[in-house]
Amino acid sequence: MSELTRKAEKLDAADELAAKRAEFVLDDVVYLDGNSLGALPAAVPGRVEDVVRRQWGELRIRSWTEGGWWTAPERIGDRIAPLVGAAAGQVVVGDSTSVNVFKALVGAVRLARQADGGGLGRDEIVVDATTFPTDGYLAGSAARMTGCTLRPVPPSEVTDALGDRTAAVLLNHVDYRTGRLHDLPSLTAAVHAAGAYVVWDLCHSAGALPVGLDEHGVDLAVGCTYKYLNGGPGAPAFLYVRADLQDRFDSPLPGWNSHAEPFGMRAEYEPAAGAVRGRVGTPDILSMLALEAALEVWDGVTIDAVRAKSLALTDFFLECVEEYVPEGRVECVTPRAHGERGSQVALRCPDAGDVMERLIERGVVGDFRRPDVLRFGFTPLYVGFADVERAARVLAEELA
Amino acid sequence: MSELTRKAEKLDAADELAAKRAEFVLDDVVYLDGNSLGALPAAVPGRVEDVVRRQWGELRIRSWTEGGWWTAPERIGDRIAPLVGAAAGQVVVGDSTSVNVFKALVGAVRLARQADGGGLGRDEIVVDATTFPTDGYLAGSAARMTGCTLRPVPPSEVTDALGDRTAAVLLNHVDYRTGRLHDLPSLTAAVHAAGAYVVWDLCHSAGALPVGLDEHGVDLAVGCTYKYLNGGPGAPAFLYVRADLQDRFDSPLPGWNSHAEPFGMRAEYEPAAGAVRGRVGTPDILSMLALEAALEVWDGVTIDAVRAKSLALTDFFLECVEEYVPEGRVECVTPRAHGERGSQVALRCPDAGDVMERLIERGVVGDFRRPDVLRFGFTPLYVGFADVERAARVLAEELA
After folding, report:
1. B257: CATH
2. What are the pLDDT digits (tens) for A335-373?
3. Confidence class of residue B111 from pLDDT cuts 50, 70 and 90?
4. Helices (H) and strands (E) in chain B — how many of each?
5. Tens of pLDDT, residues B76-109
6. Is residue A50 part of a domain?
7. For residue B102, what is the nearest residue in chain A, using CA coordinates?
8. Which of B103, B144, B98, B97 is nearest to B125 (CA)?
9. What's the CATH code of the domain at B9?
10. How many domains does chain B have?
11. A33 has catalytic annotation
């Protein structure tokens, strides 16, 4: 038994989240792709069966009221809220992340202009130039449809790019490729100092590390529920609108679900108060209630404990890679500093595509991001330290 | 046995769609609310269980490619296409109806302006003034964000309202409240004659009657899959963009899923060719694959046979109501002419809310639309003539 194997054993023995693994359906694969699609929580299949057979099949239309379908978007939003540091009543679930980026960003531009007395002086949307592409595309559409210019800026230059013309800023909390964690408190403060509004994309941080939306005064945020929140493939995303902005939040997608009186069938749109204002059309119940069941794994878990384990996992992975992998064979593009690291490790190597295929064949599942990145996500609720050691060992063997 | 009971027996015996009822999970309730939420097709629970337990739980991320998740939106779109008279490659499934109304209507305005050489002369969106509210709200947003004026017009006055300023027109094929079927061929032709583009909302006609999108040269259409298509609560909607318009379709929601090279992770948006261009974010797999299973009930069924039975059902319901219900107690607001009738019957009576509650208690499930409408939907795949006779009889007893 190697020294690192022994260390993994000790770390696993001391892991207070270790028991959570039993709440997931897992085989003997080392699953390091939970930052793409979270594993299946064991509570989900039974819940989904109940939703389909009883709630839909037997109660049918009555489930909209009696079964709690109608209020699911805000109820499940409140279940997610503490994981991203939000008090209740500010998060609503529904639509895809992309659609929510559009709502949030157009909403942010309108907030900025309202604050400026309705003028069009604020005519720039700043967006992280290294963002996951969909954010950039939708920021482009939001800019076009609000008469703004889109200004892509590397995250390190965002602060310098802000000014009187900045209406809204769209930033990623954790970079999807490198795993770099951006400084949400200071960037939020900088955007506010410029009189602009910020939208944070939490896809790679929600459920992985503390976000502190309320604490840091974030304006709007969107996030994904099928990565670290294990909601299932394409599960609905969430939208956060800070409580004191909700009355002024002016959504570009005003559907009947966000009406103050949705069943009044009134021709005039009158937006609801609260997080409900972020809703649009009929919620996707099957996926939404699967997500609700998936969120039960968070019972009794603090996001701080998750973060502590996440850092321990990525530290240990880097240690194992350094020990096992021949020097110079991979280059780590994820920052070493804890304050700059999300819950993944990205390693660059020239033949990354082939290497990842072979890893997957050998039961170590990460993913490949073009052109040359091996991406490994560490989900503290079900990944252990022995998994990490095995992953690094198999990687080293394939790279030898 | 009354004469109408005997007639129902005869009609049921001659009904070539009668066997389809066995493909649904139904109890002894007369379910006349399939125009709100379709009944559960028997194939769905098993399929959903496979999607959750095997495709998500075991194959996990591999299902995106190996399990056909990635291509589901257009594959399921092609399954819906023949039901609305569309050749393959023009329908894509995803997002809510509301979100698709926004895509289609902004797209239509942009098409009109492109056709006019890019000018802003076409600055009016005409919308059915009696529309389901969400269409009106989103048309308002589309107008606001494209520099148009929204002009609500009663359907009968649409033709007169069209002109050089009309960019786009949003119409309902069947009115959600009255069940009135609008004349899609002639209204489409009128919109085209004015140089404008039409968006049809097929929520209350898809799966209930022939639509003939291709035949009548419709530009864009959206529709719901949880009513007559039985896709489940909040199942994803569909978007039709006519083949020869797809290259010019300029979506206001350009997500990574509609990129020509979605995994290229490119900063510049380059829209995909074909129906895929209507996609936005990651598809909601659980709901989408439940819908795919639900669509299997259409195997061997023609929409013409469905329409023939639908008219027979509503004719027979009106006959029974006339026979059983005391004269003057209800007023039918659904047109008698077949050419103007969808697949529902709406009856007005002053105490409609209370009456519907009592009907539901007695196993006859329709719904109530404020202020005074009893709404009964007739879904030919699982409603029979004996159901219809019973519904009218119970209604008469409650109204007596």
Report:
1. 3.40.640.10
2. 999 999 999 999 999 999 999 999 999 999 999 998 999
3. very high
4. 11, 15
5. 999 999 999 999 999 999 999 999 999 999 999 9
6. no
7. A253
8. B144
9. 3.90.1150.10
10. 2
11. no
Asked if residues B173 and B202 have their Cβ atoms less than 8 Å apart, the reply is: yes
Distance from CA of A1 to the nearest CA of B (A): 30
Q: What's residue B116's pLDDT?
A: 83
- In this structure, the dihedral spanned by the alpha carbons of residues B22, A65, B176 and B384, taken in order and rounded to 10 degrees, is 20
Residue A247 among known ligand-binding residues: no
Residue type, A23: E
**B140 and A365 in contact by Cβ < 8 A?**
no
> Quick one: pLDDT band at residue A118, thresholds 50, 70, 90?
confident
Across the range A238-243, mean pLDDT stands at: 98
Q: What is the pLDDT of residues B41-54, one digit of tens each?
A: 999 999 999 999 99
Cα dihedral across residues A343, A347, A353, A355: positive or negative: negative
Q: Say yes or no to pLDDT of A120 above 80.
A: no
| pLDDT tens track for B60-82 | 999 999 999 999 999 999 999 99
Contacts of B400 (CB under 8 A, 6+ apart): B326
The Cα A174–Cα A180 span in angstroms is 5
Q: Which domain holds residue B341?
A: 3-41+301-399
Cβ A220 vs Cβ A354: under 8 Å: no
Residue A27 and residue A9: Cα distance in Å, rounded? 19
Do B266 and B315 have their domain in common? no
Whole-number pLDDT of residue B95:
98
Among the candidates A298, A322, A354, a domain finishes at A298
Domain co-membership, B101 together with B234: yes
Distance, CA of A124 to CA of A109 (rounded, Å) = 9
Q: Within a 10 A sphere around the Cβ of A270, how many other Cβ atoms?
A: 12
Cα separation, A119 vs A196, whole angstroms: 14
Active site residue B375: yes
Say if residue A244 is in the same domain as residue A321.
Answer: no
Is A17 among the domain residues? yes
**How far B47 CA lies from chain A's nearest CA (Å)?**
11
Determine, yes or no, domain membership for A53: no
Reported as a pLDDT band with limits 50, 70 and 90, residue A117 is: confident
> What pLDDT score does B1 carry?
73
Q: Is A362 helix (H, G, I), strand (E, B) or coil?
A: coil
Q: Are both A122 and A257 inside the same structural domain?
A: yes
Instruction: Find the closest chain B residue to A142 by CA distance.
Output: B252
Same domain, B146 and B275: yes
B250 shares its domain with B312: no
> From the CA of B287, how many Å to the nearest CA of chain A?
6
Give the pLDDT band of residue A244 (cuts 50, 70, 90). Answer: very high
Is the CA virtual torsion B194, B195, B196, B200 positive or negative? Answer: positive
Residue B201 catalytic? yes
Per-residue confidence at B117, pLDDT binned at 50, 70, 90?
confident
Residue B140 lies inside a defined structural domain of this protein: yes
Q: Which residue of B has its CA nearest to A39?
A: B57
| Res A116: pLDDT | 83
Question: Do B289 and B180 belong to one domain?
Answer: yes
- Tell which of B275, B298, B321 closes a domain: B298
Q: What is the ipTM of this complex?
A: 0.97
Question: How do beta strands A124-128 and A166-172 pair?
Answer: parallel
Q: Is the domain of B204 the same as that of B294? A: yes
pLDDT attached to residue B120: 73
Supply A153's token pair: 């800026």
Phi, psi of A108 (to 5 degrees): -65, -40
Residue A376, H or E segment: strand A373-377
Decide: helix, strand or coil at residue B73.
helix
